[in-house]
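From: lab user (bench 3)
To: helpdesk
Subject: output format question, protein + adenosine monophosphate

Hello, I'm new to running complex predictions and I'm not sure whether the block I got back is the full result or only part of it. Here's what I submitted:
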Amino acid sequence: MKFTELGLVPEILRSIADQGYETPTPIQMQAIPVVLSGRDLMACAQTGTGKTAGFTLPILNRLAGNRVTGPRKIRVLILTPTRELAAQVEESVRTYGAHLPFKSLVMFGGVGMNPQISALRSGIDILVATPGRLLDHAQQRNVDLSGVEVLVLDEADRMLDMGFIHDIKRVIKLVPKKRQNLLFSATFSDEIRTLASTFLVDPEYVESERRNSPPDLVKQYVYKVDRERKRDLLVELIRDKGWYQVLVFTRTKWGANGLTEKLLKAGIEADVIHGNKSQNARTRALANFKSGKLHVLVATDIAARGIDINELPHVVNFELPNVAEDYVHRIGRTGRAGTEGAAVSLVCVDEHKLLHDIERLLKKQIEVVAYPGYEPDPGIRAEPILMRSAGTRGGQRSQAGRSGSGAARGSSPKAAGGPRTGTGKPGGASHHSGNRHR
Ligand code: AMP
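Helpdesk reply: Thanks, we reran it on our side. This is the complete output you should expect:
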């Protein structure tokens, strides 16, 4: 199938051609006709599948085919869990709408409200926002959502993980009852199904690829190593193998900071993004990483969620995630767009159960590679993994439960004060608007 067969207006086909895209991705092939038909949609699609264009293109088409006269009103509202994703989605809106006259705005917290207020006053067709800042504006009556025709929840699973359910419900009350609803989620948990049953009306269901399957092009390896030697091994691997553009995941903000310091001391250009970093610092780190100035970007799961970096050669799980699905999200950042990528996990004795959970989800074993000189000491016992970073080394691990039973590891990270909850209310902390109009 070709883009030209989907019934999109010439202006949109032109921007698709500008991007050099020739064929729609599977999620686009399925989602675009549904969105064009005006039906509600529930789509299971992970980052890297082309899902953003999957909803952006037909939404723009809808606006183009039904232009309204008079002052601009917000006709499309797209909610995302994180600032980064909001910025990326709005960037896509501008890219695909480059030959159309619509105005878009990205709105998130952490930056002043005033530029967003002036942008809103100047008239916006498409608003991309994190829920917290949007509600701040709604409370102050800066934003009028009474003209919304399409409401999109992007990465809805992550929004629920981050505790946005009440914010989402409050936003839904502010938009007209009669509207088109699109729900995108990487996973379909029971919570998502519950949300879908209240949010969507007679939805069409589409799925981009098998659930929880990482991209085929990603080569996965495990290096077994002692927990205290992980940092040294990472430095060694980066140097020895000449890795560049390495995205490294840690479980906690505390761990991310410590690792970044270690890399810098070793002379490796590195920076860190997590929920406690200012928006400017995060944007700068990401830009430097994308441009190749930084060799390593250390990130927590939430900060890295949705980051769109194409052809990323290396993803390192410095620590395995507590939720097996997060492993798939993490490594989905590499091996995209036909390029091969490598996902490397440094696994210590504490993490054997997590590794087992991941392999069970993937339905395959991950190849274990030895790095000479870093073989694990069989005398070291497993310790429970605690997510709460007390800001001290001692706070990271419990002194109780050295049995290695893994009981604490099995506990739900959603209940733990880990990165998911540790950022507080990311959207609500409120952030900036790019306020970029065409
Ligand atoms: P997404 O899943 O929306 O984050 O998109 C992942 C990447 O795929 C982005 O860099 C898009 O620019 C790119 N992309 C989207 N649609 C296509 C397409 N039809 N052909 C090639 N690349 C695409």
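A quick orientation on your result: The radius of gyration is 22 Å. Let us know if anything else is unclear.
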